Amino acid sequence: MSSALAIGLGAILAFLVIALAYRLNFTWEVSVGKVRLVSARTRDVLADTQGSIRISCFMDRRHLMFRPVSRLLRGLRQASSSVAGAELVIEYVDPRWDLTRAGQLAALGVPENALLFERQRRRIVVTLDEMLTQTSPLRAQEEKASRGESSGLGVFRGETVCAAAISRLTLPYERSVIYWLQGHGEVRFDDYDELRGFSDIARELKRDGFELRELALAGLGQIPADCHVLVIAGPRHALAAEEQNLLEAFLQHGGRLLYLVAPRVTAGVEKVLEKWGIRVTPFIAVSPKTLSGQEVVISTFAEHAVTRNLNNASVVFGYATCLEAVTDPLMAVGADRPKVTLLASTDAAGWGESQPDVFPRHFDAGSELHGPVVVAAVSERGGNMAKDVAFKPTRVCVIGETDFVMNGTLATRANANRDFFMNAVSWLAGVDTGTAPSLGGDATLVTGFARQQWLVFMVWSALVVPGCVFLLFSLVSLRMRR
């Protein structure tokens, strides 16, 4: 009798504890092993950032995303306290209770359920829509949660976005403007075709804080001064001589260029690129390391900021043009000589094919490029200057294909194409986005449970299931005694 009474009282106590935790929205998290809340790359961003940064979390504590966001902020503060860099000051503002502070944030134009990053007189706002990649819109998830329904799964990318915001606060400008060249048959960033469009990668760029603008060079005297990165994506027609001169002048004055090659097309950019140490060849990269026999899987990367954290990943190219480093002795020497890094290449079994449309493919040692062959390269001049020096180094990134980031390719999410492209853009813009996965940030699945669903889950896990096990044990014991 006393045992049954003790079990009953224990069940009542467990129920009261669950109800209290539900009421107070209490959480207690335990670190697993040596896994850190933020990635090593984000810790590097914090180490490179000097001064105090204030982060205001303007969120309702009952919101579905409050827990992952608060967990990420705790990880950022913990990481900042362990490195000699940024000092993070974090405040939580609940619009239901902190009315005075909520009014101040609203007057600054900060929407509810957002993060405000402040450093000196600079402000950057990061919304939940920017931090969450979900299978259904966030508003639909919230409506389902309010009805007590499961709102589905999403991927929380808060660490990437927050690291980019912190890095951007150290720059002399608030937003990085990307000009996307048009007028020569280039792909468009506002093309929403499910297979051939580029709207998905454009959305990723905007989510990371970049502003996209179209640019036509005809009639211009120079490339706009606010151009932080110029993208030339797969031109099908050659640039005029005047346009090539504008591009060359842009690079000579510290410009940043991302060139995505269109196969078998002479766009007039090749001569400009050779002056910066990168040559575009007429060969197409092929390799036995492939998926269906036509594309090539790249998993060999050089040590560089663009390829950081891609050691165990693969980038898939369908029709990539081979690149080479220029070894011309007439190139500039000394401090004026660009530093070329061959970013990505095939394995030793790959080669540069002159007739890629002819199957089966065979290597011709007399007329084709011996492997391994390079499909992506970067060039930089003045990159060893200190960050506080006004001189802006020139940066060029050339990738041998354009279609590797089209919507149809990114939809599979089975490769690191997106990360490779985003890393390249971030390096060109001078913004470190910290894309490495972490326990409290990227690649964290959000279940989408409403609070009522969490209560049901806790009752079943703490009371119903253990109670059924105990009842079964009691019946078996009673039967054995009889």
Molecular structure report:
By secondary structure, the chain is of the alpha/beta class. It has two domains: 37-164 and 438-449, Glutaredoxin; 174-429, Class I glutamine amidotransferase (GATase) domain (Rossmann fold). Helix content is 33%, strand content 21%. The chain has helices spanning 2-24, 40-48, 66-82, 99-107, 128-131, 138-146, 158-169, 199-207, 241-252, 270-275, 407-410, 417-429, 451-481; strands at 52-58, 87-93, 114-119, 122-127, 132-134, 154-156, 176-181, 210-215, 229-233, 256-260, 278-286, 296-298, 300-301, 315-317, 321-325, 339-345, 351-353, 374-381, 394-399, 444-446.
How does the SSE layout of this entry go?
Elements (H helix, E strand, L loop, with lengths): L1 H23 L15 H9 L3 E7 L7 H17 L4 E7 L5 H9 L6 E6 L2 E6 H4 E3 L3 H9 L7 E3 L1 H12 L6 E6 L17 H9 L2 E6 L13 E5 L7 H12 L3 E5 L9 H6 L2 E9 L9 E3 L1 E2 L13 E3 L3 E5 L13 E7 L5 E3 L20 E8 L12 E6 L7 H4 L6 H13 L14 E3 L4 H31 L1
Parallel strand pairs: 1-2, 7-8, 7-9, 9-10, 10-19
Antiparallel strand pairs: 1-3, 3-4, 5-6, 6-20, 11-15, 11-17, 12-14, 13-16, 16-18, 18-19
Helix pairs in contact: 1-13, 2-7
